[in-house]
Structure formats: structure tokens, C-alpha cells
User: Fold Glyoxalase from Sporolactobacillus laevolacticus DSM 442.
Amino acid sequence: MNFHEYPNTYVDQVNVYVNNLERSKDFYSGMLGLHVIKENKRAITFSANGKDPLITVEQPQGVLPLIRRSAGLYHFALLLPSRKDLAAVTAHLMKEGYPLVGGADHAVSEALYLEDPDGNGIEIYRDRPSDQWKWENGTVFMPTEAMDEHLLDELDGEAWTGLPEGTIMGHLHLQVADLKATEQFYVEGLGFNLVAKYGAYADFISTGGYHHHIGLNVWNSRGIPVQEGVHVGMNYFRLVFPSEEERKEVIERLEKMDAVVEETDDRLFAKDPSGIKFELTN
Assistant:
């Protein structure tokens, strides 16, 4: 089952600020093997298949350092087609000596965690088949356990050629200022379903029975919305709705919640209660 296409609502692209464009190009293209599909003096767009945008990095003039203790990006997550692909990227990064934050088995998935050179969080993961996920009363079982030490046994000696063409944006995890208000915004406003809740600290939401399209947490950001100024970190993410009708209904709900939806260059943008910007498309 594909959870990242019609009739689901999902994230397909992110745009992040960095403070050194060439260094970011070396990482995303050189280290991860993504394709550059658009480039100018201020921004570079990367793709896994050479045509569909996945990640855009921008270097605004006078960009300020990343603020870790505020609302914004926790990580964006690149979903790989297979477990073998996860083994390949893990082995590659270890061979290159690139610093890793860690790895985990979440029962629904296996994941590797790292940061780009500016500190933007990245997860690279593979999903287990959805018929192996455990659900109870609408809640998905999603623990954090140690990564399988035999993961690299999947390798067959093939040379590293970069992240595979089938790599997509699997999910997004955000740091937010107010978990309750944000949950209401994403569930009642945007139409997501709450599929996992970890006390007063983290929510996971999705559509179509996915384990999560978006994660929300207050571990480092409770009471601290997006800060003023242009900082390294999240600029905006793109949210894809199944139809124009659905998008219009969402916009009506957001406006009733006093959220501001603005049009810029024929594109529609809004901000969540923490001030995190996103694009609404279909």
C-alpha cells in the first residue's frame, strides 16, 4: 500500500535554510547522492529520481544560526524502498566517517538519524510491511528499540551509487510550542488522524492508516514558538491534499480557526499555532 499518494494527505517536500550553500550541496549531492535539479545563487533543489523535488536548501542573506530550543524542524524523514537500501546508506555513511546521531527499530520501521552540516535533523528509514504493524483502538504501536545489529548482513557487495530513485519524503517531525493547540490545528483543521500519543510530550498523526505523516513534540520547544529573524532550519514544508475540493474545505476550516492563509506567486501558505509555515497544494 502506498501511503504517499491519493487519497491521502501527506508531506512531499521540505525547504530549509542553511548558512553555506556549497557545503550543503556537497552533503546532499556528494554524501547522500541526490540529484541537483535546480540551482541558483541562493537555493538548490535536490531530487532522488532526477525530476521530482524532494529537498530545497536556501541561503538567505544574513541568515542566523539554528536555534535548537524553539519550534521548528525536528527532522524530515526520507523513506527508502527497501531494507537493503537502509543497510547500504548506513554502511556508506559509516565508511565515510559521517557523524550519526543514532539508529532505532520502531516496530513499524527501522531508522537512521543524522544531521546535515547546519544541524537540520534528518531521518532515513524503511517501513516494515503495513500488515505487520500493530494497532489497538486506533493507536499504532511504535516503540523505540535498538537497531538490529545484523542490518548490514543485507548487503551484497554492490557499490554505493546514492540514495535510490524510489526515495520519497516519508514524514516530517516538528518541534512545537503548544502540543494541545497544535494537535487541534492538524486534526480538526487539516484533517489528520491522531494515531499515537506519548503523554503531554508528543503526538503522531496521519491519514489513510499510515503510522505517521507528521510527528509533533515539545521536548525542546514547549512555550517557545518560531523565533523572529531568519534562522537556519525550517523555512516551510509542502502539504499535498487529495483534491482541490479537499484543499478548499481545509482552507475554510483554517479561516474559521482564525488561521491566516496567504497567496504568494499563485501558491497558498499558512502557519500553524507555533508559526511553522507550510504550503497547501493538491
